[in-house]
Amino acid sequence: MSDVNIKITDREGVTHDVVAPTDMSMNLMEIIRSYELAEEGTIGVCGGMAMCASCQVYVINDPGLEPMGDEEDAMLGEAFHVKDNSRLGCQLHIADAMEGLEVEIAPYP
């Protein structure tokens, strides 16, 4: 079993140090939900299908994330509060390369 350490700043500005398993096929949205870092019903509304952008995060420190796919790019093209460092948490699958990742959860529309 392998874990990575991630810093997640919630929508109130509080930073949380979380431990995320790399061997459970989870994504960042699911980690945020499991740690209850966003109000119920305001994250992962579409179930992680890259169709709603409720799991949008701003990447503060990128230790080596996978490149953005076409579906993620298209959804962010229609989302609110998008910045140059925006990503969808549901599309960021927990992997060893995420050690040291720092993100901030974007505002919920």
Automatic annotation (TrEMBL):
One term of GO molecular function: electron transfer activity
Membrane-spanning residues: none
GO biological process: P450-containing electron transport chain
Domain of life: Bacteria
Region forming the signal peptide: none
Keywords of the record: 2Fe-2S, Iron, Iron-sulfur, Metal-binding
Gene3D superfamilies reported for this sequence: 3.10.20.30
PANTHER family with a match to the protein in the record: FERREDOXIN/ADRENODOXIN, TRANSFER PROTEIN, PUTATIVE-RELATED
Name listed for the protein in its UniProt record: Ferredoxin
Organism: Chryseobacterium panacisoli
